[in-house]
Write a structure and sequence with these properties.
This protein is of the alpha/beta class and about 260 residues long. It is built from 13 helices and eight strands. It has an eight-stranded parallel β-barrel, surrounded by five helices. The two termini are about 15 Å apart. The site of 2-phosphoglycolic acid has 13 residues, from strand 8.
Length: about 260
């Protein structure tokens, strides 16, 4: 059994004071939630407040993006060592909003993912098709392309440490959740690609098995994201293919997000 990751992506919401207020309500509600890893990804400016508020709890804190360089002339970027120094342990990479509004490509997603791993952060790498791609029947091709052009540039050992979030773009912030079957289908496509890619490279596959006790395809956790709410979390999580969720809007409310965590 893969331990689920229940992650919240706050996007561009919550100041440090609002972050502290969130945790005051959230902490007691998830005190006993040992069945999963809980990760909250606030904006960079609230990371320190979140780390502080989550101290001595099982909740981990993540960034929403990560620069690919250690340091340098990259105005507006935040590096892995900076994220580590503030006490965060995860980083979302390649969110569709980054791809859509900030020209993130599969190539930069790979570079950012490699940086996260290099500095000891767990990357949650997002993939997913847009509505027109789904309507043309291109979902699998898009997912396969995003995997091959992006994260399949990792070694098998690196790969077993990442989490993937399948986030169909048409389901993000729209209230249209993928049905559990649609999500599970996409997860199977992704896992199948992982099996093909890292099962073929025999030497690497053996290394991964030795380190993780299982194949990369079995070790990798694939989260679902896109209009996850307290009332649909349970049916999504009932799919054996779904190893957790990445929640946007509904993660802003401590009571709502706690009930998702405790699906
Ligand atoms: P949503 O966002 O839950 O608000 O649809 C999900 C995400 O963008 O990660």
């Amino acid at each position: 059994m893969r331990k689920p990751i229940m992650a919240g992506n706050w996007k561009m919401y919550k100041t440090p004071a609002e972050t502290t207020a969130f945790f005051e309500k959230f902490r007691p509600l998830v005190e006993k939630s040992e069945h999963c890893e809980i990760v909250i990804c606030p904006p960079f400016t609230s990371l320190a407040a979140a780390v502080d508020a989550a101290k001595n709890t099982r909740t981990r804190i993540g960034a929403q993006n990560i620069g690919w360089a250690k340091e340098g002339a990259f105005t507006g970027e935040i590096s892995g060592p900076m994220i580590v120094a503030v006490g965060a342990t995860y980083a979302i990479v390649g969110h569709s909003e980054r791809r859509q509004y900030f020209n993130e490509t599969d190539e930069t997603v790979l570079k950012r993912t490699q940086a996260a791993l290099e500095f000891g952060l767990t990357p949650i790498v997002c993939v997913g098709e847009r509505l027109e791609e789904r309507e043309c029947g291109n979902t699998d091709a898009v997912l396969v392309g995003q995997c091959h052009k992006g994260i399949f540039g990792l070694t098998g050992q690196q790969f077993a440490k990442i989490a993937i979030a399948y986030e169909p773009v048409w389901a993000i912030g729209t209230g249209k959740t993928a049905t559990p079957e649609i999500a599970a289908d996409a997860h199977r496509t992704i896992r199948g690609q992982v099996r093909e890619k890292f099962g073929k490279e025999a030497a690497e596959a053996i290394q991964v098995r030795e380190k993780f006790g299982k194949e990369a395809a079995e070790a990798i956790r694939i989260l679902y994201g896109g209009s996850v709410k307290p009332d649909n979390a349970r049916t999504l999580m009932a799919q054996p293919e779904i190893d957790g969720v990445l929640v946007g809007g509904a993660s802003l409310d401590p009571v709502g997000f706690a009930s998702i965590v405790n699906f």
